Input
Amino acid sequence: MKRVTAALAILLLAGPPARAFTVEVKDTSGESVADAVVYAVPLGADGAALREPPPTAIDQIDKEYVPYVTAVRVGTRVSFPNRDQIRHHVYSFSEAKTFEIPLYQGTPREAVLFDAPGVVVLGCNIHDWMKAYVFVTESPYFSVTDGEGRAILGDLPARGYRFEVWHPRLKGPPSATATEVSVGDPARETVTIVIDQKQVWRPRRAPGAGDATYR
Output
């Protein structure tokens, strides 16, 4: 009997079990939106013990940043390995993080610490079309939508959340997409959020390897 009582006490202290929750992001025409950051903000005090975020990497492959959109929590260190056989020059002038990694090949010795929330736009001084985004959030619950417009947020303790969406083409602030959901309700394990998109100009990629201007 004592063992049962002790086990029950542990379960009560642990709180409700965590679960995965799926968010689908679509545009106003009903099309699925890839590369959208979905993050959940707990309603009220969270109380979750946050661990130091694990490091991550943004590759440079075939003169493109991979992935195009990366989401990280504040305090994450990001490395920028160059998989190409030419040098790249990574930089950002964004308010949330300004940094520069001059011309290099391979992997820089030091990772970049993203220590403030916000949107960080990446560029390359050598290849104008190379562009990518890092969304830095204070929430520990986030994911990026796949090609089908779906983001799966795992390990969400059962409670109420405000889900918000950010995308490079989002028209308006993420707060305009806010949707409150009670995670743990067996009748609702997914939600669809519709966002309005704007046109964003992107430099044209240089010609292929057979062209004399190829770099």
Summary: Residues 1-15, 211-215 have pLDDT under 50 and may be disordered. DSSP finds one helix and 17 strands in the chain. Residues 2-14 form the longest helix (13 residues).
